[in-house]
Design brief:
alpha/beta; Rossmann fold; seven-stranded mixed sheet; 11 helices; 11 strands; 16SrRNA_methylTrfase_J; SAM-dependent methyltransferase; SAM-dependent_MTases_sf; rRNA (guanine-N2-)-methyltransferase activity
Length: about 270
C-alpha cells in the first residue's frame, strides 16, 4: 500500500463519483479519503505521509500536492502545433519520425500527450499511437483527459481520442516484454538535463512527473521493437545524445530543442 499518495473526491460526491474514486484508489494501491466539506490541508493532515492527492471531480481528475501545486490534463502545445502543420508549416518531430498515415508510434514519455496527439492526427484511423507514463497517477489524469477533454478544434479532439495509454509505470517494464518490431517509431522525451526557457509550461508536470533519466538499455530495447527509427528529444546544447552515440539531429538552426534519430536494430 502506497503511503505517499491518497485518493479523494470533490465535496459531497454522489455514488458514481465515489465508486470512481474507489476504483482509482484500488488501481493506485493507496488510501481512499472521505472529503465531506474539508479543505485539502485538513485531508492531508489525516494522512501525514501523503505528499500528493488525486482528487476525482465530476469533469476531470486533479493532482495536488501539499504545497498547492496542481496538475490536470490539457493539450499543452499540441493545439498550436497542429494548427501550424495544418497551415503547411514544418514540424521537426514529424520530420525526425518521417511519420506517415497508418504508422504505429510508441511514446515512452507521454506527459501531457501533446506530441502523441499530434502523431495521432498524422497516422489517422489506420495507424495507432500508444503511450507510456512513468508516474501512474499522472498517467491516470492524462488517460482520462484524452477521452473527455474537449477543445474547439474537432481534429484535435479526434486525435486525442485515438491515443491509447498502454502502461502506467516505467517504460522499461513495457519495453522488455514488447515483441520485436512491434512499432514503426519509438519516441522518448525525457526531462531535459539542461533546462530551456520554454519549460515554464511544464512546471506542473515537472512537479509530479517521472524524472528517471533515459538509459542505454531503454534505447537498446527501443531499437529492438522499432521497425524504422527511434527518436529522442533533448535540449540543443545537451550532451545527452552524444553520450548515446546519436549523431543524426533534426531541428531548426535557432531552436532550443533537437530530435536525435537512432537506426533500428537489424
Amino acid at each position: 500500500m502506497r503511503s505517499d499518495l491518497l485518493v479523494t473526491t470533490s465535496h459531497k460526491p454522489d455514488a458514481l463519483l465515489w465508486a470512481r474514486a474507489e476504483a482509482y484508489a484500488t488501481q493506485l494501491a493507496c488510501p481512499l479519503a472521505s472529503r465531506h466539506a474539508e479543505g485539502m490541508p485538513v485531508v492531508f493532515g489525516r494522512y501525514p505521509d501523503a505528499q500528493r492527492a488525486l482528487i476525482v471531480q465530476s469533469h476531470r481528475l486533479l493532482l495536488v500536492d501539499r504545497a498547492g501545486t496542481q496538475f490536470f490534463f490539457h493539450p499543452n502545445l499540441g493545439a498550436m502545433r497542429l494548427r501550424n502543420i495544418l497551415r503547411g508549416q514544418p514540424d521537426y518531430l514529424l520530420e525526425a519520425m518521417q511519420l506517415q498515415p497508418g504508422d504505429s508510434v510508441l511514446d515512452c514519455t507521454l506527459g501531457y500527450a501533446g506530441e502523441a496527439s499530434l502523431c495521432a492526427h498524422v497516422v489517422g484511423d489506420a495507424g495507432e499511437v500508444h503511450g507510456i507514463e512513468g508516474n501512474p497517477e499522472v498517467g491516470l489524469v492524462v488517460r482520462e483527459g484524452l477521452q473527455v477533454f474537449v477543445t474547439d478544434k474537432a481534429l484535435l479532439n479526434a486525435a486525442m481520442r485515438r491515443v491509447r495509454v498502454v502502461h502506467l509505470g516505467h517504460h522499461l517494464e513495457f519495453l522488455r516484454t514488447c515483441p520485436d518490431k512491434r512499432y514503426d517509431i519509438v519516441y522518448f522525451d525525457p526531462f531535459f538535463d539542461v533546462p530551456v526557457d520554454t519549460e515554464e509550461t511544464l512546471v506542473p508536470l515537472k512537479a509530479f512527473g517521472e524524472h528517471a533519466p533515459l538509459t542505454a538499455e531503454a534505447l537498446t530495447q527501443a531499437r529492438r521493437i522499432a521497425r524504422r527509427r527511434v527518436v529522442v528529444k533533448t535540449a540543443r546544447w545537451s550532451e545527452q545524445l552524444a553520450e548515446f552515440g546519436i549523431t543524426e539531429l533534426v531541428g531548426g538552426k535557432s531552436g532550443r530543442v533537437v530530435y536525435g534519430v537512432l537506426p533500428v536494430a537489424v
